[in-house]
Design brief:
The complex is a heterodimer of chains A (280) and B (310).
Chain A: H1 41-63, H2 72-99, H3 115-121, H4 132-135, H5 141-162, H6 168-197, H7 200-213, H8 227-241, H9 260-274
Chain B: H1 4-14, H2 27-46, H3 48-52, H4 61-86, H5 92-100, H6 118-135, H7 144-172, H8 176-195, H9 207-212, H10 220-238, E1 248-250, E2 255-257, H11 263-273, H12 277-290, H13 292-309
Antiparallel strand pairs in B: 1-2
Helix pairs in contact in B: 2-4, 4-7, 6-7, 6-8, 6-10
The chains are: A mainly alpha (280), B mainly alpha (310).
């Protein structure tokens, strides 16, 4: 290897030399975003926003684990899940904005902020559609395992169904997500069993996390017909782990947020909001 | 008197061939390599923190993805290097304990704080740039597993450097406030970046032996000069000023002349008195201690599975 070769091309040349491009890329570049006949644009946008917000908010929580995991391998895995969900969020928010531009916050004239970023960084907490399971603050490693297991079980079932969406864009985003969510679920399932059958302490921590998060599980289901398929898988994991299904009532206030969301967004949005005319 | 084992080792080094894990090697060579590879691995892991500080606040979804992927890569580089180090007969657990006990070092650059989003760009451009300068020659280092790890890492580092330079370029095309952020960030990181090459050659006690063993291929001052020569045109293209009044082209030498960093500051940071030494180690220690029960659970679970299989 030539000592200088790695520097070649840092200057000059065309923009294709860059690893990530030199300008804002439209995540849906080249995709026909016309809403098909028979699909209600505002409903499609609402669905994409809900799924996009779930992904964005949980991605933010997972990314908080970066440099804090019990082992390097798990640090890398958690960052992977955060990146997968962040990618889904970008596509879904862009799809929502293209389907119904009226949902996008209005920024000062000439602002270069793309629509999906306007949705992510310039909405208030009350305008976010995500479930509380995605937003509650992180706990210990057992907490992230339980949260990922419950969240990815239901999101996987939801996205599997949406691969047949009449909107080809959403169907394609869902198909990509199914592959990712399958891995998230399997990773979380393995660690669920490991914690349940590892040591007394790991089992105690797992059961505590399950009790904390179980009351938020019900809110993940937007339609009851997703429950049957999801329950089969969950019951299998519980059986292998030797953990009884919690008998806890759903938490009241479904459809609202916890106090944690606005705090999370204050941090997430601070730089973007300070520079509404900025280029990044 | 030279033993046949020593003579074999010397001949391998003289031929610029690789020493492999099962080959005989002098104790000093082994110790030096463990120290250097471990320090390099620890730098990757501690180096996740200053940039990781901005993941939650990245100002666009695209930037958040790029930054998170970059910090994740650093964890991966740490893994390769811990594995390379383990071939010398020490375990990852032992290396982590030595780091947490303060008995092994990591690069001093990570003891400086990241104070604005521009620092993400500056770290990519200057810190990763300086790291590449140091690392590319190490692809030819005499110890096989280390050299091969470096080849892999050097394939990924240029992406890190480019994302940093690209962020700064983009910010310079943005608002006046953003341009000021970039300049302020470069002002803070320029001198610590020059210190990344280590003390001047006449004050670098280990360099001569490391060069003789083929572990090190270029002197600190040579690499520092190369870095300055490459960085100056990049700074011009960016439209920022490097904070060194002595920096100028010397046509006679065919290199840039430049001022000396404050070496007393480097010594102080190495001794533990940098702005973030305590914070960085406390963060790593907390993650390690918080994760202890998980590692114990995984070990207990694996033992139980093995018992069932028997």
């Amino acid at each position: 290897m030539n000592d200088d070769s790695v520097y070649d091309g840092l200057l000059g040349g065309d923009s294709s030399q860059w690893a990530f491009g030199t300008d804002f890329e439209d995540p849906l570049a080249g995709v026909d975003t016309t809403v098909p006949d028979g699909v209600h644009a505002a409903e499609l946008a609402g669905l994409c926003l809900r799924l996009g917000d779930d992904a964005l908010v949980l991605s933010q929580r997972l990314a908080e684990w970066c440099s804090r995991a019990p082992e390097l391998e798990e640090d890398i895995a958690l960052a992977n899940f955060a990146l997968d969900l962040l990618g889904q969020a970008r596509l879904l928010l862009a799809r929502a904005a293209a389907a119904d531009p009226s949902i996008v916050p209005v920024l000062p004239e000439g602002s270069p902020v793309p629509a999906e970023d306007a949705l992510a960084f310039f909405r208030e907490a009350g305008q976010f559609r995500n479930v509380r399971m995605a937003e509650v603050p992180n706990g210990d490693f057992a907490h992230v395992v339980v949260r990922l297991l419950l969240f990815s079980l239901v999101r996987l079932a939801t996205l599997e169904r949406l691969t047949g969406s009449p909107d080809a864009v959403l169907a394609a985003i869902a198909a990509k997500g199914v592959k990712e969510l399958t891995y998230h679920r399997d990773w979380a399932g393995r660690w669920f069993v490991t914690c349940a059958q590892g040591t007394d302490e790991s089992r105690r921590r797992l059961l505590t996390a399950l009790d904390q998060l179980w009351p938020l599980y019900d809110e993940l289901f937007t339609t009851d017909d997703l429950r049957a398929g999801t329950d089969v898988v969950l019951d299998q994991v519980l059986a292998v782990a030797g953990v009884p299904r919690p008998q806890l009532a759903p938490l009241g206030g479904a459809g609202t947020h916890t106090e944690a969301l606005s705090l999370m967004l204050a941090e997430m949005q601070v730089v973007a909001r300070a520079h509404p005319m900025g280029r990044w | 008197m030279t033993t046949p084992l020593q003579a074999g080792f010397d001949a391998t080094i003289a031929r610029h061939d690789r020493i492999e894990p099962r080959d005989w090697m002098p104790d000093g060579y082994r110790r030096t390599l463990i120290r250097q590879i471990a320090q390099h691995a620890h730098s990757e892991i501690i180096g996740m923190q200053p940039e990781g500080n901005w993941i939650s606040r990245a100002p666009s979804l695209r930037r958040k993805a790029i930054l998170l992927a970059k910090v994740q890569d650093e964890a991966g580089h740490g893994l390769y290097l811990y594995s390379a180090c383990e071939t010398l007969g020490i375990s990852r657990d032992e290396l982590v304990e030595l780091l947490l006990a303060g008995k092994q070092k990591y690069s001093s650059i990570f003891n400086y704080p990241t104070l604005s989003y521009a620092d993400v760009g500056t770290i990519g451009w200057l810190v990763d740039g300086a790291a590449i300068c140091n690392q590319v020659p190490l692809c030819r280092t005499s110890y096989g597993p280390y050299g091969r790890s470096m080849i892999r890492i050097c394939k990924e580092e240029p992406f890190h450097q480019r994302q940093g330079y690209e962020l700064l370029m983009t910010m310079m095309r943005g608002t006046g406030e953003q341009r000021a952020m970039v300049q302020e960030s470069v002002d803070r990181f320029w001198w610590p970046s020059l210190m990344m090459f280590g003390p001047p050659d006449d004050k670098s006690p280990n360099s001569e032996q490391s060069m003789a063993w083929g572990i090190k291929r270029n002197s600190n001052d040579e690499l520092r000069q190369k870095f300055v020569d490459m960085t100056v045109p990049q700074a011009d293209a960016l439209g920022i000023t490097l904070p060194d009044p002595e920096l100028r082209w010397n046509a006679e030498r065919g290199h840039h002349d430049f001022g000396q960093p404050d070496w007393a500051e480097l010594t102080a940071v190495i001794k533990g008195n940098g702005p973030c030494n305590t914070q960085r180690l406390a963060h790593r220690r907390a993650a390690h201690e918080d994760g202890a029960w998980v590692r114990e659970a995984a070990t207990a679970f694996a033992a139980r599975q093995a018992e069932v299989a028997r």
